[in-house]
User: Which sequence fits this backbone?
């Protein structure tokens, strides 16, 4: 039970922080891709979607190489924060964010693309600046799809196993999120712990699914 | 005084638009069949579409001049646009929709101005309603208030009442007339409804597919509405009538000069 509570607290902290990152970059990126075409925008979208199709361990390995202590980014992080990024809970946040980002991006992008551009034309004739049109017209009209995307990304971040394991390791109380704790419990033959964790994650996943389907049926 | 000058060309796929006209204060009706390019003209004047070639000037301001690569952004054109399906923001109340378009003042001043505008179009009771709760006519009233909120010099109305029932249309036409005259606006009104054109037009601009054909003022509006094709038909029919009458007379003359048939003759 103590194990479950610790893993749940850590998992929620990691998933919520990852979801904040995902929301900022995912929704911002979705708006850019849906409303502006620029050279390389299609290639950028494909690369951003890559984490969906890449095996989690491959993604984790790449992140480990890019963020590790010997990499420029890892080095910069260490000189600013005084410690490495990999094998910390903050590293788990980055892993979960990268793995879940495309779910938010794709769902939000398709919701924004479906907003009738004539509302934006009307807003321009009303004298609104482009940032106000995005904030007060386009994004509110796409909000159901955007919230659905954020919910999916949260569920994905909460359930991430392979990427997190490679980037953050399996340190109980520090980087051992719930999916990793389940693996650990099964390996050690602690079946009741595994069952308890699995049920908690299943309930969360089910709640997200219900929320997403309710959002999709709600009028804009 | 000419207020709006338009001389534009634009190609979109197979369709080619040439529109050349001037409009004074008052209502200029753009009349013609669907697909003639009336709405496209409106979009170009609003700056939503760019002209392929040409100029648009409003008063002493140039809005578009392709030779000088000049294009004023839609939001700086100071125009009001009423769309066929209103396009009120569904997630905002009627009052919010109008207040968002008021350009100056604090938040409370903008809302007060929006309330005045709603009262002016007879929609003061609808201030707190969301657009989906409004009838088509009510939506267009709110859309009119919103279009006037930016104190525009030019009002564009693109078939605003075509989806409404006749009594509502009559009321809203009278409202548009009053608003245009009270605010001394130049208004372009797109319609393909003959009666609507006749009721509203101070000037009329007739469209044939892809081009402006004919503009008319005052007493010429009614005949311009009949259009060149109808005028041609009438002229042709008149000529045919004249021909038949001449033929008739000739036959009668021939008949008279002939020796009468004994049995039909009444003279003997």
Assistant:
């Amino acid at each position: 039970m103590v194990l479950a509570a610790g893993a749940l607290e850590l998992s929620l902290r990691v998933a919520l922080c990852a979801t904040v990152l995902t929301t900022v970059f995912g929704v911002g990126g979705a708006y850019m891709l849906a409303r502006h075409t620029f050279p390389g925008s299609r290639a950028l979208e494909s690369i951003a979607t890559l984490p969906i199709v890449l095996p989690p361990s491959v993604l984790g390995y790449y992140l480990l190489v890019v963020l590790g202590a010997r990499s420029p980014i890892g080095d910069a992080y260490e000189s600013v924060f005084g410690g490495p990024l990999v094998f910390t809970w903050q590293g788990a946040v980055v892993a979960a964010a990268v793995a879940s980002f495309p779910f938010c991006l794709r769902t939000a992008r398709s919701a924004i693309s479906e907003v009738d551009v004539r509302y934006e034309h009307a807003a321009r004739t009303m004298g609104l600046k482009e940032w106000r049109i995005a904030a007060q017209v386009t994004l509110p009209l796409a909000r159901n799809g955007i919230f659905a995307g954020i919910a999916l990304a949260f569920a994905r971040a909460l359930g991430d196993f392979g990427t997190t394991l490679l980037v953050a390791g399996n340190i109980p109380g520090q980087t051992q999120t719930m999916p990793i704790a389940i693996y650990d419990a099964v390996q050690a033959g602690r079946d009741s712990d595994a069952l308890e964790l699995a049920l908690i994650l299943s309930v969360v996943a089910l709640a997200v699914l219900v929320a997403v389907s309710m959002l999709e049926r709600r009028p804009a | 005084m000419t207020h709006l000058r338009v001389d534009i060309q634009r190609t979109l796929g197979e369709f080619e638009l040439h529109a050349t006209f001037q409009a004074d204060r008052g209502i200029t009706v753009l009349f013609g069949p669907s697909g003639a390019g009336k709405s496209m003209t409106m979009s170009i004047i609003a700056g939503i579409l760019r002209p392929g070639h040409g100029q648009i000037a409003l008063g002493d301001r140039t809005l578009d001049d392709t030779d000088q690569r000049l294009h004023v952004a839609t939001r700086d054109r100071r125009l009001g646009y009423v769309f066929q399906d209103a396009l009120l923001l569904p997630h905002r109340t009627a009052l919010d929709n109008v207040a968002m378009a008021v350009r100056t003042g604090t938040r409370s001043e903008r809302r007060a101005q929006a309330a005045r505008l709603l009262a002016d179009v007879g929609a003061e009771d609808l201030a707190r309603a969301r657009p989906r709760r409004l009838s088509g006519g009510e939506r267009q009233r709110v859309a009119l208030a919103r279009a006037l909120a930016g104190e525009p010099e030019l009002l564009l109305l693109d078939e605003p009442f075509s989806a409404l029932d006749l009594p509502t249309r009559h009321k809203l036409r009278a409202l548009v007339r009053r608003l245009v005259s009270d605010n001394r606006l130049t208004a372009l009104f797109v319609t393909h409804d003959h009666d609507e054109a006749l009721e509203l037009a101070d000037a009329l601009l007739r469209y044939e597919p892809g081009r402006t054909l004919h503009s008319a003022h005052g007493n010429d509006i009614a005949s311009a509405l009949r259009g060149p094709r109808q005028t041609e038909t009438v002229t042709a029919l008149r000529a045919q009538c004249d021909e038949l009458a001449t033929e008739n007379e000739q036959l009668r003359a021939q008949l008279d000069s002939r020796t009468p048939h004994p049995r039909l003759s009444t003279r003997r």
About this structure: The domain at 2-217 of chain A is CATH 1.10.3720.10 (MetI-like fold).
